[in-house]
Task: inverse folding
């Protein structure tokens, strides 16, 4: 019997989420949504070969993306510092905190803070989730030998091709966006989804569907959007600067116009406004009110709209 997606997630101790090379905004939004859903209960890391640019900063959790696949061992290096200048290294534990002490040889200064480089090595993940992409070449990290025994789940909207020796469990559908498929995966596996997850998914769907203009956008897409907004998701679009051509002709004074002429126009507008302001509320209401004696009789009757229904 094939394992359910929920069983695969529940049995995983450490999860590695991989984003393809040169990812779209939709793919990054989908991966971070999944990361946020999983990180409350699991050890999760999200990796992309190239760190996202500034335009991705709207996404919640974008600072969690790293280029380092390894997360098993912490490696400490001293950049530009000769190893021969170190006398010895010791460690102890104070107040349940680990402390490492580097002792240099007599007459030699200790390494500076700016020379300390922290990185990771080794992969402890027993489950790898691929978000988007079409084949293994989109995920260079899969070539790491430490991932040979890991389970692999693919989430996307295309058929994923891989080496026959790899057992890839696919969760794919004919959706316009990757974020839609991740939303369905979160629901299928009963993962937690809060307003941050919903907001990322909404932005990803908007990008993946090209503002809902993609031909694959359907009723299910909009039902999903409604559900995400009920969870507290917000549509956070990029604000475009207003241009002069966005306003009706004549609504913005011509910068090249005669200053005296502009001042005269401004005074005329102010005078018109003052004339309207001087009207008493009763007079304004009387001038704009309907004359019940002359109005058609059916205007004051209840409106009943009739139509036909097709079963």
Result:
């Amino acid at each position: 019997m094939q394992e359910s997606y929920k069983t695969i997630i529940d049995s995983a101790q450490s999860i590695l989420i991989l984003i393809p090379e040169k990812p779209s905004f939709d793919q990054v939004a989908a991966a971070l949504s999944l990361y946020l859903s999983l990180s409350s209960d699991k050890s999760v890391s999200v990796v992309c070969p190239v760190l996202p640019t500034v335009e991705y900063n709207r996404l919640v959790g974008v600072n969690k993306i790293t280029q380092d696949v390894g997360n098993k061992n912490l490696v400490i290096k001293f950049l530009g510092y000769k190893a021969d200048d170190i006398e010895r290294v010791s460690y102890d534990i104070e107040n349940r905190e680990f402390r490492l002490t580097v002792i240099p040889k007599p007459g030699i200064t200790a390494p500076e803070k700016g020379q300390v480089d922290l990185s990771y090595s080794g992969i402890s993940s027993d489950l790898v989730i691929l978000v988007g992409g079409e084949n293994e070449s989109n995920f260079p990290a899969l070539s790491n030998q430490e991932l040979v025994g890991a389970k692999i789940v693919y989430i996307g909207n295309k058929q994923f091709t891989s080496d026959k020796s790899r057992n890839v469990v696919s969760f794919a559908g004919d959706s316009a966006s990757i974020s839609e498929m991740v939303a369905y995966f979160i629901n299928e596996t009963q993962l937690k989804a809060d307003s941050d997850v919903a907001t990322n998914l909404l932005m990803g769907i908007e990008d993946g569907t090209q503002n809902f203009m993609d031909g694959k956008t359907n009723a299910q897409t909009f039902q999903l959007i409604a559900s995400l907004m009920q969870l507290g998701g917000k549509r956070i679009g990029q604000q475009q600067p207003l241009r002069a051509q966005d306003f009706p002709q004549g609504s913005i004074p011509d910068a090249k116009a005669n200053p005296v002429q502009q001042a005269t126009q401004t005074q005329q507008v102010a005078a018109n406004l003052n004339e309207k302001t001087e009207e008493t509320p009763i007079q304004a209401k009387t001038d704009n009110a309907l004359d019940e004696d002359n109005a058609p009789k059916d205007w004051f009757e209840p409106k009943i709209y009739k139509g036909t229904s097709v079963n």
